[in-house]
Amino acid sequence: MVKIKRVRPDLISRLPEDVIHEIMRRLSVKQAAKTCVLSKLVLVGVMMQDKTFTATTSSMIKSVKFDHCYNLTHLELLRLPHLKNVEVISVEALESIKIQAPNLQHVNLYFLEKTSKIEIEASSLEQVVVVGSEHLKIEIRALNLKNLRLDRCHDIRSVEVEASTIERLVLVRYYGDILDHRVFNCLSVEDISLSYCAFNTLKLERFSHLKRISVRDCSSYLRKPCIQLPNREHIELDSCSDVEIEISENIKNLRR
Known about the structure:
Elements: H1 17-25, H2 29-34, E1 40-44, E2 52-55, E3 63-67, E4 74-77, E5 85-89, E6 96-100, E7 106-110, E8 117-121, E9 127-131, E10 137-141, E11 144-151, E12 158-162, E13 165-172, E14 178-179, E15 184-185, E16 191-195, E17 201-203, E18 212-216, E19 226-228, E20 234-238, E21 244-246, E22 253-255
Parallel strand pairs: 1-3, 2-4, 3-5, 4-6, 5-7, 6-8, 7-9, 8-10, 9-11, 10-12, 11-13, 12-15, 13-16, 14-17, 16-18, 17-19, 18-20, 19-21, 20-22
């Protein structure tokens, strides 16, 4: 005899976000983590009872948002097959983030001043945006990452991306001594865009997949400007008149 299990529809997730937040605010952190009837987990302005928040395989969560949550030091979202979006905003005490979700597509992390390590393992990952963090170590494992954007991230310790292709690496207001493969181990990147960055030396000869480079408004920020570019097809330099450039003669398109 075949047993039929009736699955209740997820009606709570259809509620407005502020209503969901009010419901979640009344739960303990452990209850929120174990919630499997919700597809959205939204915590805003919550004082966390536990310093570590862990959600694992039992959860049906598709979207996670932590906004100005207090006392949280470690965030772990592990083996979540339905998770697609993660957003973390101004969680001041957060030290580390670890995410394992095969269908994860978007990760947005804003103003995490104490976060020193970010680990993301997601085969379907499309975009990672990190804004306003310092002394970061980032490890990403994905198949085809479309966009990695680091904005106002100072003194990055290392960025390691294991992916067949990385379509675009965007650095905005990056400050560091050198920008090369030792800091940014993203050798499969195809397009690099730099804006308002300060570094002594830019070395890209190890980036064998690189097709396009764009450097904008870096002249006043470069301390000992020297850009060493490999044999690439398209290079665009905007407001970088004082930059010393070493390039190949085979470049097809150079704009200054």
